[in-house]
Write a structure and sequence with these properties.
It is found in: Endoplasmic reticulum membrane; Microsome membrane. Keywords: Endoplasmic reticulum, Fatty acid metabolism, Heme, Iron, Lipid metabolism, Lyase, Membrane, Metal-binding, Microsome, Monooxygenase, Oxidoreductase, Signal, Transmembrane, Transmembrane helix. This protein is α+β, with helices and mostly antiparallel strands. The structure holds protoporphyrin IX containing FE. Protoporphyrin IX containing FE binds next to helix 15 and helix 21. Protoporphyrin IX containing FE (HEM) binds next to helix 15 and helix 21.
């Protein structure tokens, strides 16, 4: 072996030693701050325990809380993550001091397109600008229009249920079809038929995207961020999940061209009443505005795409869990039916205004979102500088994670937390809750932008279904559900089958 080889080998060894030491040192952040938590491994942090131990992440978080208390730190790969549960601290982070220190969610490790141009990926000023534009999509007048689109799709749902009376219905599959149709039409200018056809190419592509979102490549990049660039290339080019993104992007790009050409067509009336009031149009109108930095076509496509991602799984999960809880609690279902009977005559339509006046329906939906908050690992903020959290001085770049599942099932906040009691949300009881004790949509300036949309769809669908059908459990319906968290949303481990009896 020549001297050059020996020198090269020595230099490589020193370099590797230096890298190993830096990595080890990185995993000492919480120990140095005196914050307890599960011991991380130098290769994967705590990600293997969280995601690959065979347990649901919800169980792992429960066990960590039991062992380390309400404030503890863990490492999502290399990302230091501080869990806080004190509700006043939660309020400080999400609401009171949000704009000073906690305005962004954590930086995505794999910076793939179109994610980085969406509300979920954007940061600081650009996020704020696009957020204020996209929030306009959910103004009362637009929601009134959107409710008509929703009602059209819900009519297909009730038609399917009429054809399947007294048979076992896979409720998650059913509501995924409904959510997909509604969002496609409202956000992507796309008509699909995925309620009647559960094998619709687009619905299958969306499911596949979500099933494979946390694939081994991404897992690897989270643990070894140096490879994120290579992983990004692989995911963008070859992942099966790219199919859904491609369909969406192509469709929205075509729709943009069409809308722009129609905008100059003298046969089309320019009045806003004649414009399609969807997300796409809101963005196209904003792109013409001289008051904001130009919105690029990439941003328009990306943010239409993120509405599908943000709204599909969440709303269908919420509808599934609400139906399940109503089937298992016939007395609550009866009270809801009576509220609907009293509010509407036989053939009267349920619309945007009337559905929002139903007090007990609101209680049912709030309680269902408490027991089963669809999104459980996404209420996270990144510290933008060294800052105080409780009595701790937390460095820049730490993710602060709000454990919504544990908050929603804390027996001190919610006695008998797994029992379905809509009375917890009666107007008198509601006043007694801490404002951070119920946060299925997060809180503060970065909360769920689609909250009104999601709630409207859930309420319209549940009201119309309960008016026409009695929901009953099938013989195999479990009374205690096991849940999975494939990405950030909970889904039942096994399909939930219910029967719909005609009233
Ligand atoms: C039951 C239905 C839904 C639930 C439970 C839900 C829940 C959430 C939660 C917990 C967050 C994070 C909030 C935070 O960090 O404080 C979020 C963010 C978001 N949601 Fe929803 N969501 C629902 C429906 C929707 C719908 C229908 C859309 C779109 C049409 C949507 C689009 C988004 C977007 C774009 C964000 C990121 C907002 C930002 O960073 O500015 N969501 N959602």
């Amino acid at each position: 072996m020549g001297p050059v080889v020996i020198v090269l080998a020595l230099v490589t060894l020193v370099w590797l030693g230096q890298k190993a030491w830096e990595r080890w040192d990185h995993f000492q952040i919480f120990r140095r701050l005196g914050i307890p938590g599960p011991p991380p491994s130098v290769l994967f942090g705590n990600l293997v325990e969280l995601r690959k131990s065979g347990k649901s992440p919800l169980t792992v978080y429960d066990e960590w809380q039991e062992k380390f208390g309400h404030t503890y730190g863990y490492y999502a790969g290399t990302r230091p993550t501080l869990v806080i549960r004190n509700l006043e601290t939660v309020k400080d982070v999400l609401v009171k001091h949000s704009s000073e220190h906690f305005s962004n969610r954590m930086t995505p490790i794999v910076k793939s397109k179109p994610l980085m141009d969406t509300l979920m990926g954007l940061r600081d000023r650009r996020w704020k600008e696009l957020r204020s534009i996209l929030a306009q999509t959910f103004s009362t007048s637009k929601m009134r229009h959107i409710s008509k689109i929703m009602n059209r799709s819900i009519s297909v749902t009730t038609e399917i249920l009429t054809n399947n009376v007294n048979l076992d219905v896979d409720v998650l599959g059913l509501f995924q079809g409904l959510s997909c149709e509604v969002i496609c039409e409202c956000a992507l200018a796309m008509r699909v038929d995925c309620q009647r056809n559960q094998n619709d190419t687009f619905l299958v592509a969306v499911r596949e995207f979500l099933r494979t979102a946390l694939n081994p490549f991404i897992f690897f990049a989270i643990c070894f961020p140096w490879f994120a660039g290579a992983v990004q290339f692989i995911v963008d080019k070859f992942a099966v999940s790219a199919l859904m993104t491609n369909i969406v992007c192509q469709n929205v790009e075509t729709a943009i061209q069409l809308r722009r050409s129609q905008a100059h067509d003298p046969k089309i009336l320019p009045s806003s009443e004649h414009k399609v009031m969807d997300v796409l149009q809101t963005l196209l109108d904003a792109a013409e505005s001289p008051h904001i930095d130009k919105i690029t076509d990439d941003e328009i496509v990306a943010n239409s795409w993120i509405f599908l991602l943000g709204g599909f799984e969440t709303t269908s999960a919420a509808l599934t869990f609400t139906s399940y809880l109503l089937a298992l609690n016939p007395e609550v279902q009866q009270t809801l039916f009576e509220e609907l009977q009293a509010a509407f005559s036989e053939d009267e339509d349920i619309n945007f205004d009337s559905v929002n006046n139903l007090q007990f329906l609101d209680q049912v939906v709030c309680e269902s979102l408490r027991i089963y908050p669809p999104v459980v690992t996404f209420i996270v903020r990144e510290t933008s500088s060294e800052t105080r959290v409780e009595s701790l001085s937390v460095p820049k770049g730490v993710s602060i994670h709000i454990p919504v599942w544990q908050i929603h099932h804390d027996p001190e906040l919610w006695p008998d937390p797994f029992t379905f009691k809509p009375s917890r949300f009666s107007s008198s009881e509601k006043k007694t809750h801490h404002s951070m004790a119920w946060i299925p949509f997060g809180a503060g300036p970065r909360n769920c932008v689609g909250m009104r949309f999601g709630l409207l769809q859930i309420k319209l669908a549940i009201a119309r279904i309960i008016r026409s059908f009695r929901l009953v459990p099938s013989p195999g319906t479990l009374t205690k559900l096991k849940l999975n968290v494939p990405t950030v949303t909970i889904v039942p481990e096994k399909k939930i089958y219910l029967k719909f009896e005609k009233r």
